[in-house]
Amino acid sequence: MNSVARLFRIFCLLALAVVASTGCGGLSRANLYDGPPLGEPEYRLGVADVLAVEVKDNPSFSIQQATVRPDGQVTLPLVDDVRVVGLTPAQVRAEVVRKLEAFIKQPMVTVSLVQLNSYSFYVLGRVQSPNRYTSHGLVTVLQALALAGDVTPYATPENIVVIRRFPDGQRRIRFDYPAVVDGTRLEDNIHIQTGDVVYVP
Fold this sequence. Notes:
By secondary structure, this protein is an alpha+beta fold. 21% of the residues lie in helices and 27% in strands.
């Protein structure tokens, strides 16, 4: 077994241990997310993502493709290195504006994502192909399950959960597959965030 396969197996075992310890099978209230409805996620930049920065009326300060380096930074004209890992495009824009104000009066800046390369998540449990998945665009829980070949005949799809890290720790977000498919709980079909684990008991 190579090192990548070994690391993936360890991760799967840890994820399964988390699920087991939180009582996923019965969907107990322990560690179950009960906050406000989850809206569209704000994508946060990761290593290898590519962004574009446009400075209005100053094309020499703009850049069409800036790749986030392993140190979490990008190099931009005039302002040099800017740390962007973990920031939303709006936060990056605010930081670039702050740095440009030393050179330009009231700079008008647009930051856009060119390519998502750091977006990844896991689909584990009773699916056809449990694995780590990547995508160049945001996917929903249903789309993540489709990437994994859908649930097996032995699954309990009404008890699927998305395991996500919140500021106060990990929480399980309920996903009632049959109810989503029949349209009674469409709000459960949220977008996956980087690092999420979709678990099918």
